[in-house]
Amino acid sequence: MALVEITPQEYDVEIDIVYATDRNFTGVPIYTRPACYLHADAAKCLKKASAMARRQGLKLRILDAFRPQEAQRALWNHSPNPDFVANPDFGSPHGRGVAIDLTLIDQNGKELDMGAGFDEMHDRSYHGSDLISKTAEANRFILLGIMVSAGFEFYDHEWWHYQLPNAASKYPVMSDSALGNPMMAR
């Protein structure tokens, strides 16, 4: 299988899969199981990113990673905003297992100020936004530097979203059935 499970122990990350809770923009859980998977290529880059964050006295908190095609359809049906939600008809880097949504936390487990919340569909969420504080901008630059140095590219509308380059041409879209233990209700 191309997907590998990301665990806090092996990757030295914290995992908080928001779409398995009601703390997402739909207000209801999308996943029935809070699992974290990435394609092996993305998992290798994540290990590099985690090590770089650790050298800065920080840690990565993963909010979403592989997102089954069924989940992408549910998000799109709720909020068909192509600036923030990929149209499932074209596939999403998340559905290919090569995208990750994350933030940085300090040694006490407190999230760094990023100027906008995860999945906040607003101009404040854009990289380079001038609607956020200098502190939030500096924190975004740290995350950006870590993730790009580790091999990811950024999406300019979402400070939290990183993906492997050329995802659509290299990786197939996968459904929940790609997992032995599904994330979605059947």
General description of the model:
The protein is of the alpha+beta class and 186 residues long. The protein has one domain (3-178): Muramoyl-pentapeptide Carboxypeptidase, domain 2 (2-Layer Sandwich), CATH 3.30.1380.10. Helix content is 27%, strand content 16%. It has five helices and seven strands; from the N terminus they run E-H-E-E-H-E-H-E-H-E-E-H. A hairpin with a 2-residue loop joins strand 6 (153-155) and strand 7. Helix 2 packs across helix 4. The longest helix is centred in the first third of the chain and has 16 residues, at 40-55.
Largest sheet: 5 strands, mixed
Question: Please, how many helices?
Answer: 5
Which CATH-level-2 architecture? 2-Layer Sandwich
CATH topology label:
Muramoyl-pentapeptide Carboxypeptidase, domain 2
The average pLDDT score comes to 96
What is the domain tally? 1
Q: Which structural class is indicated by helix and strand composition?
A: alpha+beta
Uncertain stretches: none
Distance between the termini: 21 Å
Shape: globular
Instruction: Tell me what portion of residues adopts beta-strand conformation.
Output: 15-25%
Helix and strand sequence: EHEEHEHEHEEH
Spatial strand arrangement across the major sheet: 2-4-5-7-6
CATH domain class:
Alpha Beta
Output the radius of gyration.
15 Å
Catalytic activity: D-alanyl-D-alanine + H2O = 2 D-alanine
Site (Transition state stabilizer): 67
Cofactor: Zn(2+)
EC number: 3.4.13.22
